[in-house]
Amino acid sequence: MAIRVMLVDDQVLLRTGFRMVLAAQPDMEIVAEAGDSQEAIDTLGSTAVDVVLMDVRMPRLDGVEATRRICAQTDPPKVLILTTFDLDEYAFSGLKAGASGFMLKDVPPAELLSAIRSVHSGDAVVAPSTTRRLLDRFSPMLPSSGREPQHKHVERLTEREREVMLLVAQGLSNGEIAGRLVLSEATVKTHVGRILTKLGLRDRVQVVVLAYETGLVRAGGQAG
């Protein structure tokens, strides 16, 4: 089945550009568009969507709050935050709100398509190391998303899972973690999957965010 995409942006010209790129792909389909976040939320009530491309700054309801509301739904679509600026604190608030990643609006078409496919398959678009660097800068000023109570769930992890979680939070890939712990990549992938399930997280980006919020990792990427 084609990946069902919703475009959410108040700039018609930008939506048109994205639509042209996505419509040319045999594995993607634009099923909905919205000029603001509230319209997007209303549309999701009657339209099945796999991936939402969400602008940050829009009238009525900003993209961060919309992302938070969407991700709080049962079986929500994945959300990709769109931002004009590489260091836009709103985009990082979006990560805390549940987005699977963020992208610049002037991203090359090939990267946009790759990102949509990655998010749809369950991966995060933003590399954990990049997220970590950005959180180093923005975590002191970002509002809480209420994840702190989940700290007790970290205690449910096995010693090995906790080791893997800390390495994920420090930006290491599965291959790098496998080398560090002398494990196979398949084993590391299994551990990461169990960590996400036990902590109720969607992807590796959310692992990084939780590690910062609970103090397991401090600014600079060091284990707490």
TrEMBL record:
Positions carrying 4-aspartylphosphate: D55
Superkingdom to which the source organism belongs: Bacteria
Residue intervals of the Response regulatory domain: 4-120
Record-annotated HTH luxR-type domain positions: 150-215
Record key words, sorted: DNA-binding, Phosphoprotein, Transcription, Transcription regulation
One Pfam family in the UniProt entry: GerE
InterPro entries linked: CheY-like_superfamily (IPR011006), NreC/VraR/RcsB-like_REC (IPR058245), Sig_transdc_resp-reg_C-effctor (IPR016032), Sig_transdc_resp-reg_receiver (IPR001789), Tscrpt_reg_LuxR_C (IPR000792), WalR-like (IPR039420)
Name by which UniProt lists this protein: Response regulator
